[in-house]
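It is worth pausing here to work through a concrete case rather than discussing structure prediction in the abstract. The textbook approach is simple: state the sequence, then state the predicted structure, then interpret. We follow exactly that order.
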Amino acid sequence: MGACVIVGGSKLSGRLKVQGSKNASLPIMAATILNRSKNRIRNVPDIKDVHVMIEILKVLGAKVSLTGNELTVDTSNVNIWEVPENLMRKMRSSIILMGPLLGRYKKVKVSYPGGCEIGPRPIDLHLKGFAALGANISESHGFIYAEADKLKGTNIHLDFPSVGATENLMLAAVLAEGRTTIRNAAKEPEIVDLQNYLNKMGCNVKGAGTDTIKIEGCAIEDLNEVDDYSVIPDRIAAGTYLVATAATRGNIVLENVIVEHIEPVLAKLREMGCNIRTLEDRVQLWVDKPLKALDSLRTLPYPGFPTDMQAPMMALLSTVEGTSIITETVFENRFKHAEELRRMGADIKLNGNTAIIRGVKKLTGAVVEAKDLRAGAALVIAGLAAVGKTVVEGISFIDRGYEKFSEYLLTLGANIERLN
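Step two, the predicted structure:
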């Protein structure tokens, strides 16, 4: 699993280019199945989840290569509609392959996916949507089967604005007959990026970024290759580096950001007293006075405060004088990092989906374990701010979503070493 050894006390300072978005890259990679053609995608992060998706696409018959951050995918020879169980279990996002495989082959077989254990993330919304499009769904022995003579456009109203369900249904509906309308759709920027990619391929999708998405179905023969597409920057990675800088009371300039995408995080950092300057695709954050606690931080679907930033913010708030309250409304089991932060001297009390954080003068180094991707990042941030040496075990979770995390922190002046 590997570990990071951190000696805290160094202020992060410098410039950093933010990686491409993990949560945009994975559904776009799944979308390449649809056009039976060549796809060239830039700004793809070199992370573990991307490599798992590459492995899956290769098993399905695609030719795939990742050079630096440029990905080429040729799906002209994809001829398998079943995703191997061992690969499904490696990554939660693998469920996103159901939509394009069902669209292209009118049948698909997958097992229940794996990934970080941050609470129930039921896929019933995905399956109800596929059924509405005309698929017959059956489940047995841990596998899910979906099959249809043909998919037909329909009206779908999601019970919850699920990002995964919205994307999966978009991917299935582009090859359905007629119009599909998805209401109460998720509004995340990654969904807009998927729409833009699908339209570049020749699909007809409108409304991403609002709660109503309309898709006019097309024939697979109408789709073309995508010669050049650049994935949006990763708003969660950007937020993580900003929070890490705030925790060390440092000064950072982030490049390759879409400021609007990180505004929910910037708003809370400003409320705490961080200095923030934004300019086109850059943002600067620096701290020159004591930071303040937050009366209320509540995670919500976009454009609310992202659940993926809750753990890093808890680490930061543990270092700020006063009492802060975090309410987690998206995932019910996403406070596993609190216990590990307490090992470092943090004063955190949990009550259901609420965490009460009383800031301490200094966190102290300890041996802690990452239980999931964002919790791992939070523990590294705590280690950067702590007195003494911190060992964060289980950093393979961090590799799932952050490109060269320890290396980039090193360039910003962190005293951090990775042990494999």
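Step three, interpretation. The first strand starts at residue 3 and ends at 7. The chain has 14 helices and 23 strands.
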